[in-house]
Amino acid sequence: MMANLTHIGASGEAHMVDVGDKAETSRSATAEGYVRMLPETLALIRKGNAKKGDIVGTARLAGIMAAKKTSDLIPLCHPLMLTRVSVEITEDEALPGLRVTATAKLTGRTGVEMEALTAVSVACLTIYDMAKAADKGMEIGGIRLLEKTGGKSGTYRAKD
């Protein structure tokens, strides 16, 4: 198994992968997650009546900022020159709660999956932080990679 893990050496030590000889390609990744909450909490967020302010707008900015800081948070990630990060937050009455989707893009030698996943994770954590006074029982979940394009391994799409 370790032979298939790019960040693990032959004797099991962790290391940063050398991407210097890889070709630059256009790369993108999209990830998703959700915050499940009480219907009353979702209504509070919808009305903009949370004590800490605009939860959705703040979570969107937090996700974008987090994507840009991924290499500071995940030890073996390369620092990347992202060309685009978008974070979309939508209401889902069926949860009930908020769904978060993030896309990261660049032209480079390594993928942006971790940046998209980090954006979703931090946006969800920000929603929790800003609404916890109303609902400490919120649940963060479903964080996963939906799609990635570019690079030697090509395109990946999650199964529904």
Question: What would your notes on this structure say?
Answer:
This protein is an alpha+beta fold and 160 residues long. The protein is built from four helices and five strands; from the N terminus they run E-H-H-H-E-E-H-E-E. The protein has helices at residues 39-47, 55-68, 70-73, 113-131; strands spanning 25-36, 84-92, 97-108, 139-149, 156-157. It has a five-stranded antiparallel beta sheet with strand order 2-3-1-4-5. A hairpin with a 4-residue loop joins strand 2 (84-92) and strand 3 (97-108). Helix 2 (55-68) packs antiparallel against helix 4 (113-131). The longest helix is centred in the last third of the chain and has 19 residues, at 113-131. The protein is elongated and about 50 Å long. The two termini are 26 Å apart. The mean pLDDT is 91.
Keywords:
alpha+beta; single chain; 160 residues; 5-stranded antiparallel β-sheet; 4 helices
